[in-house]
Amino acid sequence: MANKGPAYGMSRDVQSKIEKKYDDELEDRLVEWIVAQCGSAVGRPERGRLGFQVWLKNGIVLSQLVNSLYPSGSKPVKIPDSPPTMVFKQMEQIAQFLKAAEDYGVVKTDVFQTVDLFEAKDMAAVQRTLMALGSLAVTKNDGNYHGDPNWFMKKAQEHKREFTESQLKEGKNVIGLQMGSNKGASQAGMSYGRPRQIIS
């Protein structure tokens, strides 16, 4: 990675707006969930955006998190014995987590870019991805989620309904209110505004 100097002008404004989206309370909730999901061996980060970034930067904690959402026989991300120290290996580990998160069901628009985490460009995007992952885990309710279910919103689920032929035929006889039924009313006697003035 190239060294980045200080940002000036518009790029500094953009970066400060991105940094303001980062939520410290959400960070606390996400840390609690990751520790509950993966166990205390993952440790805890220093409080704050940079501490959170350093904790997740090598991709190991993220990989353990996504693996913990699967049954013991099928882990989607291979975790090396020792944490990677080379930059490209760390970025590769993050990329594996992102692929596994998408396979789990996280929508592509909710997935952060590798540089958002690795270079701390947009830690709010990292939080969004983890929130989406947690929401999916709570919604699936397959026994692999650990922690308080109230930490995340459940996703809306399809509620398919089956109707019999007779119920469908009955529905054709009903006039829906959207179609309008004026029950014999007319516009007779209604006037809008003043009548037209004819001046000669």
Protein architecture, described:
With 200 residues, this protein is mainly alpha-helical. The chain has a single domain (11-151), classed as Actin-binding Protein, T-fimbrin, domain 1 (Orthogonal Bundle), CATH 1.10.418. 46% of the residues lie in helices and 0% in strands. The protein is built from 8 helices and no strands. The protein is flat, with a radius of gyration of 27 Å. The termini are far apart.
Question: Which class do the helix and strand fractions yield?
Answer: mainly alpha
Query: Terminal Cα separation, in Å?
Result: 83 Å
Under CATH, the topology is which?
Actin-binding Protein, T-fimbrin, domain 1
Largest sheet: none
Number of structurally distinct domains: 1
Q: What is the C-alpha radius of gyration, as a whole number of Å?
A: 27 Å
Number of strands: 0
What best-fitting shape do the alpha-carbon axes yield?
Answer: flat
Average pLDDT level: 80
Number of helices: 8
**SSE pattern, N- to C-terminal:** HHHHHHHH
Strand fraction band? under 5%
CATH class: Mainly Alpha
| CATH architecture assignment name | Orthogonal Bundle
Helix proportion = 40-55%
Instruction: Flag low-confidence runs.
Output: none
Look at the structure and name the CATH superfamily.
Answer: Calponin-like domain
Protein name: Transgelin
Main location: cytoplasm
Subcellular location: Cytoplasm
Region (Disordered): 179-200
Index terms:
200 residues, Actin-binding Protein, T-fimbrin, domain 1, 46% helix, flat, SM22_calponin, acetylation, cytoplasm
